[in-house]
């Protein structure tokens, strides 16, 4: 799990990178939750997703947004963080020029950033959005949603009520040729306390299903 440092728009960004053994392996990038609420690249859900992709042959990158850990800069309410994510993807693509595809996964704030990145980067062919904060941030930019993906959330989420996520999913489901897979984890709160195992079973099950269709 090599430690990496690369240049972002506000200075140095700190990350962890797992290179795949195959040269043309797909890239995955994992985005962490809100920097002002203890969100870092070492968050348990981010860490577990990182390894879920690594075990499936991806080159995987997770990194700290500006102002978190050893990443330079300061919190920028999403605008700068989106630029950080774009720079991180640029870096991953530069060292994986033969990568055939790209995925993005994010938790909470990271899910919001990841879905914005999806709109800007047509090479992203799949996403995993964990507890996207549909009531806290504007997701209207997803018109239309360019890639199929998984949205997973808990039915006991007090931070982002299930009805708000349902509204988002219903809107996204109207796109032709795009499949949004929605999974609800029973009894899970926003942080999936005590529900990490069923969450990761859902994530890995979705990944395996999508990858089986590729081969």
UniProtKB/TrEMBL annotation:
Entry superkingdom = Bacteria
Question: GO terms for molecular function, please?
Answer: hydrolase activity
Q: Which residues form the Xaa-Pro dipeptidyl-peptidase-like domain?
A: 17-138
State what protein this is by name: Xaa-Pro dipeptidyl-peptidase-like domain-containing protein
Pfam families named in the record: Peptidase_S15 (PF02129)
């Amino acid at each position: 799990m090599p430690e990496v440092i690369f240049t972002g728009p506000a200075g140095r960004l700190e990350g962890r990178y797992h290179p795949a053994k195959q040269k043309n392996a797909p890239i995955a990038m994992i985005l962490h939750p809100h920097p002002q609420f203890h969100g870092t690249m070492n968050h348990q859900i981010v860490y577990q997703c990182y390894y879920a992709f690594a075990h499936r042959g991806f080159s995987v990158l997770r990194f700290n947004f500006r102002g978190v850990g050893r990443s330079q800069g300061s919190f920028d309410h999403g605008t700068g963080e989106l630029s950080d994510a774009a720079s991180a993807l640029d870096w991953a693509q530069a060292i994986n020029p033969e990568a055939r595809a790209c995925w993005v996964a994010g938790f909470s704030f990271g899910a919001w950033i990841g879905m914005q990145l999806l709109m800007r980067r047509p090479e992203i062919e799949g996403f995993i959005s964990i507890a996207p904060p549909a009531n806290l941030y504007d997701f209207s930019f997803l018109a239309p949603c360019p890639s199929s993906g998984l949205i997973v959330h808990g039915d006991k989420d007090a931070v982002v009520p299930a009805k708000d996520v349902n509204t988002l999913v219903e809107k996204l489901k109207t796109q032709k040729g795009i499949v949004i897979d929605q999974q609800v984890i029973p009894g899970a709160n926003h942080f999936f306390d005590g529900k990490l195992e069923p969450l990761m079973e859902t994530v890995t099950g979705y990944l395996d299903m999508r990858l089986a269709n590729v081969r």
